[in-house]
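Practice set, problem 2.
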Amino acid sequence: MSQQKWFDRKFEFSSNENIFPSILERISGTPARVEEKFKFISPSIHEIRLDNTWSIKENLGHLTDLEPLWQGRVEDIMNGHKEMRPTDLLNSRTTEANHNAESIGKLLIDFRAARARTFELVKDFDTDMIFKSSLHPRLKTPMRTIDLFLFVAEHDDHHLARITELVKLLGGNK
């Protein structure tokens, strides 16, 4: 089953419920989920690119590549910026990073460390901080801190689902 392309997704952020603790559980648990997933993926398929799309390693590396963006957007919201910093819509950092040349071990360690830094920024936020907002530059909609991290969690899951899809397509379960 093919999933919706990330840039084609629509997001609705209208809930006033404080689900931030649950969202924090999702984002802090992603490194462990990724590590568990890689225990069952044959290394022989880690670097294969299908139809000029990212390999399994590149999908993992991309998660690490975006952590500075998430951290910066938190700063933008907390500093009262009208609009959050934009992302590079071409994902040049991931394209140029040559993640396929890195070991899975290094990619996993790098992601865990980068995500830990992001988590440390927000883990003690109070209610006022999680409902503070700034305009998302691509979606052109206000995004609160809580929404940003729901967005991050969805982005994580999008790439984990893509890795699962690649494993199925490449027949690479151990």
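Problem 2, part (b): a different protein.
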Amino acid sequence: MRSVFMKSSVIVIGASGGIGSGVVASLLAEGYPVVAVGRHRDTLLNLADRLGRPAALTLLTASVESDSGAKDLVQQLVALRRRFAGAVVAIGPEADCGRLLDRDGIFLEDHLHAHVVAQFNAARALIPLFAQHSPNALYLGIASAATEHPWCGYGHFSVTNAALRMLAKVVHGESRDLPVRVQQLALAGLVRTWRNGDCACSEWMDVDSVGRGVIDLLQHSDGSAAVVHLRAGGSPEPVPD
């Protein structure tokens, strides 16, 4: 049965995380059907419970940590027989605090895989899907502006986000001839979510503003900028090459 929703659906990978769940809530409030993707069924069900189990929310258990997992996700998405407005990829492990030089190579390798390789797998899977079935859809990776300056105590996070920035530019350039908008949303600061609300500071960016930034790009971006910044209280701004 084909979808009965008026708006095209938006895929959110990492939907049960702090930022991902906030983006899901904002999209639903704006009237977008959402396909929430996560590795664990129980955390997706918890997300649905927090949101009141809306009819416009579809849950898919899948992972983009491997190429085969990303291909399995595409098969599940195709089976939904929907038109997609875009995908938001908000994934990555918790940011463990500590000096990078006190860690070993496996630690950095694991973080690079969880951030960079996983987003690469998602891009390789979803961009061709959109080009074939949902022209003009937006593929949007979420990252941090920590790429611009070393983040004290979280050097590995700065390293992985710097790699994500270059990945975004490369994938954006290589997709230029496809009918898909490929961009990265770099968050210029820490984000207050349902997961860290007890310890978040007042000057942190609210996750609702991230959701609004995503919606702004879905509806208005021409996709010409590989990377756009989002600052607290602001709107997405292109980052010059």
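Answer key, part (b): The first strand starts at residue 9 and ends at 13. The chain has a mean pLDDT of 90.
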